[in-house]
Amino acid sequence: MKRSYKRILAREQRYGLNATEHVRDADTQLIQRAREGDADAVTELYRRHERRAYNLAFRTLGDPWDAADVTQEAFIKAFRNLDSFKGESRFSTWLHRIVVNAAYDHLRRQRPEPMEAEILDDLSGPAGAAAVVGSGRGGIDPAMDGLSDPLRAALMSLNEGFRFAVVLCDLLGFPYNEAAEILGVQEGTIKSRIFRAREALAAALVDAGYDLPGARNPASQDDVTPPGTIGEDV
Amino acid sequence: MFRGDAHVDEWGEVAIDYLDGRLDPDTKAAVERHLHSCADCAARLRTQHQVTRLLQQTELDDPPSELQDRVLGQLLLPSRPVARVSRPATEEPGWSILWRRKIKPWIPATVAVAAVVFAIVGYAAIRSNADLSTSKSSEAVSTVAAADRTADTEAAREETLGATTVAAGAVTTTAAATSTTAGATTTTAMVVVAAAQERDMMVNALEGATTLAFFVFEEADAGTGDHQPAGSAAGLTAEQVEAVASQVGVLTGLEPLAAELSLGVPTFAAFVSRDDAAQLVDLLNSIGESAHLTVSVREGPPASADEFVARLLERETELPLLLSGRTKSSATSRDAFTTSTWTPAPGPTDESRDVVPPDEAGTHVLVVIYLED
User: For residue A112, is the peptide bond before it cis, meaning its omega torsion is within 30 degrees of 0?
Assistant: First the structure.
């Protein structure tokens, strides 16, 4: 996939992570040193990937404490199994796949939690998306959270597969092919999920009072897939 | 793949590539022809663009600064407490929010390496009780233990088990650090006895102890070689004592004992259910770990603490219960400790009531935590 240089630069500035090949080489060198027991290499590897890994967990789980636990678990697992990283994909891909698995495990352990139907009810109620936060994930301190409440609520209203895709690509800036590898699906599936996830997000945001010209209101138009039923791929 | 007559639902993948500017010229032209003729699809692509921008403009959050310490500490020093700390001392502590919900506190590195915390656990003999013979589980035993109390108290206790926090009312006076002589002697005794012990051993010791058990927090280095009794706990500043005492207070919800009842330094005491032994050990371990201290457990009080234990037992009916609550419904749930008073409200008419402390049923232990300065 060809990406414009400008876009790569923007990505690097945004995530503090250089996406070009020489950095991949740097990761490879650090991994080699880390395997040999070099503590500085372990530290450096951790620092390079901590931010995105944590935000992946945070944005998909919706809870900073859970996210910290999952991130910790994933890094420990990754570093203790460095030998099983064969270098066939990027280290970043491999690592974030471990984060995704840990996050999925966490979500499975967490059930039963508020189900999609309840969230939909909340979204369509007069309190709007804010009610999702209040009823679904109590105890979160909004001051800790860079996302606005409606956007966070909208994200959490997505089914998991869609949420992980849109968080990876639109929020964290992973290329589609890498996100596909991380989630273990086809690149076309990622794109399809992203497209529909964005529509569902737009609908939820409009419902919560955001001004998004052109966004369709699912309550008034039957032909738009509502957020709660987009879990199945086409 | 792209059909010029279909709406965008049919070609979402192509729309994504169109928005990213990655289509070949022919397909791009075909998409634009459709958008010119279909206001609905054009609006939906504008929405896609807006949502994408909104997401891309969202600031990523900083991970908790303690996360690095936890991960690297666990990776690089698996057999020792977290030891790598790179955070500047001036940084705002990041754990103030996190510890509200976690049994594992992320204590800032500024907490003294030399901090010493003792937890003294005393057990009263299991009281012979005919009702106990009908109980099969320790949970049932616990319920029987509450039977002597008023219905109100039992209800309150049930509520607390459900992680509803009830303020500890019995022991509230702030302790003032007055005397250090007795404590210094104690420190020596503790350090000599201390040895690295595994968590399970400590839990078993706490669950199974019949007389007295002591949790000992000491310097991480002191337990690795020959014991060096003298001066191991020196150098703990008032700020450091305050910091560790504050951890204990916040994490348990307990308030320090009154000065005349304490060991001359900030001291905490509470009954803890045997069922919560693992939670308590984890809590104490995590405090020790974060403060670079090791924790071990032994039986028997330090000589200088005998009098303190006697004084404390005289007033055990005033001590709070410390409960580990794990229900999902509470915002402060998941292994958080909560406190409550277990005694009926004292009143003139209640003086004659046969108040039975929880430990007499054998279901609870009396835990004392204090700081050495």
Answer: yes
Q: DSSP assignment, residue A37?
A: T
Residue type, B308: F
Half-sphere exposure of B99 (CA within 13 A, CB side): 22
CA distance A10 to A14: 6
Token pair in block for residue B90: 């001036």
Give the orientation angle of helix B12-19 with respect to helix A187-207, to 10 degrees: 80
Judge whether B196 and B296 are in contact, CB under 8 Å.
yes
Residue B265 lies in a domain: yes
Assess contact for B229 and B192: CB atoms under 8 A. yes
pTM higher than the cut 0.80 = no
Answer yes or no: CATH 1.10.1740.10 is held by domain A1-111: yes
| End-to-end Cα distance, chain B | 75
- Which of A166-175, A224-233, B179-188: highest mean pLDDT? A166-175
Number of domains in chain B: 2
The matching CATH number, chosen from 3.40.710.10, 2.40.50.140, 1.10.10.10, 3.20.20.70, for A115-234 is 1.10.10.10
CB atoms within 10 A of CB B334: 16
Cα of A88 to nearest chain B Cα, Å:
24
> Contact A139/B101, CB-based, under 8 Å?
yes
Q: pLDDT for A14-23, tens place per residue?
A: 555 544 555 6
Per domain, the residue ranges of chain A are 1-111, 115-234
Range of the domain at B42: 8-57
A199/B48 CB distance under 8 A: yes
Residue B90 near residue B298, CB atoms below 8 Å: no
Q: Give domain status of residue B94, yes or no.
A: no
| Burial per residue of B145-168, b for 16 or more beta-carbon CB atoms within 10 angstroms, e otherwise | bbebbeeebbebbeebbebbbbeb
**Interface residue ranges in chain B relative to chain A, Cβ cutoff 8 Å:** 8, 12-13, 15-17, 21-22, 42-44, 46-48, 50-52, 54-56, 58-64, 67-68, 70-72, 74-76, 84, 97-98, 101-102, 331-332
**Which ipTM did the prediction report?**
0.71
Cβ contacts below 8 Å, chain A against chain B, sum to 132
Which H or E run includes B28? Answer: helix B25-37
Do residues B234 and B117 both lie within one domain?
A: yes
pLDDT tens sequence across A205-218 = 988 888 776 565 54
Residues 6+ apart with CB under 8 A from B5: B34
What CA–CA distances, in Å, run from A4 to A1, A7, A11, A14? 10, 5, 11, 15
- Reported as type and span, the H/E element at residue A20 is none
Among the partner residues A15, A42, A202, nearest to B72 by beta-carbon distance:
A42
Q: Are residues B129 and B39 in the same domain?
A: no
Domain membership of residue B65 (yes or no) is: no
Same domain for B15 and B148: no
